[in-house]
Amino acid sequence: MSNVNILPLSFLYVMKVIFLALLLNIKLSYASPLETLIQDKQLTITTTMKSANNPIVGQPVTLSIEIATNRWFSAGTRLKPFKIANAVTLSSSELAINGSKRIDGETWSTQTREITFYPTQQGEYQIPPIEVFVSVNSEHNGIIEGTGYTKPQRLTVALPQVLKSIEHFIVSPDVKVTIEGSFDNDTNYSLGDAVNQIITITAKDTPAMMIPPFIIPSIEGVSIYQKPPQVFDKSNRGTLLGTRIESNTYIFESSGTYQIPEQYLYWWNTQTQQLEKISIPAQQWQVSGKRIQNSTDKAWFYLINVKIIILIVLSITILFFGYSLLMRHRIWLLDFYKDFTKQEQRQLASAFLNAIKHKEYPTACQLLYRYHWIINNQTVIPDNELLLQLNQSGFDNVLRSRVHFSQTQAKELLRYIKSLSNSNPSDLVNKNISLNE
After folding, report:
1. Is residue 133 part of a domain?
2. 225 and 141 within one domain
3. 87 located within any domain
4. Pairwise CA distance, residues 236 & 252, whole Å
5. pLDDT at 389
């Protein structure tokens, strides 16, 4: 039998430790600078859920992401957009909340981003890792930028038993309903009369998008016209107030007695954890008069339609001729606009000051003479000490390096050119400087 050498177990253990150390070293060598800061506990990304102990469907949940560094941030923290299934997410601010905290006797800088969402179904919610862009000023490597990730989060959303049979409800600590315009049972309405009704629903700590529409029942013999609802949010001292305004017009087309049954608006009171309802009282009214005959009705609608068509044709004709005139005289209109607004004068003055600022004196001289021509319609400028100094700066190579023409002098020279527009042209005969000289 041949002898077989078996390696000692201690040797195999040492080799295993060395192999794992090599793998760890390779992983660390490929880690990004930002990951290194996190591994060295110089940067932290923490995620917390801010919600009620047992959040229900429609109740707000705030996801708070805090980024902390033992140095300071060189730019704002950004989150990569993400979606949460079966939830309405409010648009978050692009600005982070800056702050600081003490950790082991050190002052750390923090930036916090908050995302508020409203679950629309009961069950388990999985919040995936969120990509976070961070830019910090490190101690030894200057500014370090990169992306990190939050830890995944889980949330359980419930639906109270009393709400399972209700299709639409509001979750809020306070809900109010106001109605403007109502039907009067003592008033004898006539055919063609109309009643406008405005229903306003406000909910505290609830965005307007989470307020369900008010259901209007159809009524035979009454036409109901609904305007697009007004949906908006307001914030008062950090408290969100959602508002939904619905405007409806009821037009009576047939005589008879009409009634809208009592309606209810259901809402879950987050303070008392109870279901509450707001009653919309039943409404009843009378409409008298005979139904308009079909022939008369058709003739009336035909007349209205003809008037509308004529109005539309006239409007299109006026717009067409207006556009034709505009295109035909567009050059004249542009010239008139330039003259009226003195556009070219302002552009030349701005270019002249810019040339002075950059010490481009030859260019400044040309712009100044052009400016004088536009204002005074003349090619010559009377002698002026500032003008002489500018010309020396522009065309005398010896003096150019020694002469400095300031912005204040440039503006004074422009005012001088403007003042010449009120002068007598005969005064400019003897004393002048010509561009062609």
Report:
1. yes
2. no
3. yes
4. 41
5. 78
Tell whether the model's pLDDT for residue 52 goes beyond 80.
no
The distance of Cα 74 from the centroid of its chain, to the nearest Å, equals 25
Shared domain check, 177 and 275: yes
Claim to verify: residue 152 and residue 60 sit in the same structural domain: yes
Whether this prediction's pTM lies above 0.90 is answered by no
Take residue 99 and report the two structure tokens written for it.
Answer: 């702050």
Q: What is the pLDDT of residues 86-138, one digit of tens each?
A: 999 887 777 788 999 999 899 999 999 999 999 999 999 999 999 999 999 88
Which residues are registered as beta bridge partners of 178?
Answer: 200
The first and second tokens of residue 39, run together, are 């591994």
Instruction: Identify the domain containing residue 242 by its residue range.
Output: 169-288
CB 172 within 8 A of CB 143: no
According to DSSP, the β-strands at 256-260 and 274-280 are unpaired
Largest alpha-carbon pair distance within the chain? 133
**Would 68 be classed as within a structural domain?**
yes
Classify residue 24 as exposed, middle or buried by CB count within 10 Å of its CB (0-12, 13-18, 19+): exposed
Considering the domain architecture, whether residues 275 and 306 belong to the same structural domain is answered as: no
**Ramachandran category for residue 123: left, alpha or beta (phi over 0 → left; psi -120 to 50 → alpha):** left
